[in-house]
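Morning!

This is the sequence you dropped in the shared folder:
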Amino acid sequence: MKKTILIAMSSAVLLFSSCAQEYNRVYKSQDYTYKYEYAKECFANGKYSRAVGLLTELVTIEKGTENAQESLYMLAMSEYCLQDYESAAQYFKKYYERYPKGYYAEQAKYYIGEALYASTPEPRLDQSPTIQAISAYQDFIDVYPDSKLKDQATRRMFELQDKLVIKEYYNAKLYYDLGTYFGNCTSGGNNYQACIVTAQNALSDYPYSNMREQFSILVMKSKYQLAKMSVISKQMERYEDAQDECYGFLNEYPDSKERVTAEKYIEGCKKFIEKHQKDPMYVPQI
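The structure's back. Tokens below.
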């Protein structure tokens, strides 16, 4: 049994060594037609690292020949399969720029977005790559509106937009959680103001987001806290604004889990307004 295993292992080592020697021989060869065919074989068999080694040279050597176009596309796809998405995106872009009417032009245009999509970070991180991926998919749809890949590109765009929405929610929530940190409530509660602006911008930019309620909750809570922490001359106006926000929230989300909170805030706003509406100290200074 041990002898059989040793023979099998020896055969595998010899085969690997033989393949490595063949690759090295091809890599050093000046026969570029043979090198091109060998690269195609490597690509077809999923040996993408070897394909990249050969194709990187061939895209330069074969420039202007019939093989140049396919070499560049195979290089881009090999990098994509190796999960080097940054290099893949660059090569797919280069292919489309060189061969906008080429045989693989549509696929290359689409895979620019796919490569960027695969490299997008989780929502808490900088979303510049996500924005680039959305732009790439939109460019693809604009150029190929009847493509079979259009629906997939559209789904990808919506998925990436959701990631941007989540990022904005994290930003708004961070401001809310900071609250009076750094003592800025004495000058108007800047963190709460920042939360309100961030959340309202998100609601405006992504009106059909499934996170509308979460953003609206942050706006409502921030307006109430901002009113509580404001200087006297701004409190009346801000309590009135908070009260209106709570009523608007209940109208839009009557079954919200934060309904009780909204009702409590309304009661708090009413008590403040009734108590101080005739006090000149709480009248906004013009």
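Headline: The radius of gyration is 30 Å.

More detail when I'm at my desk.
O.
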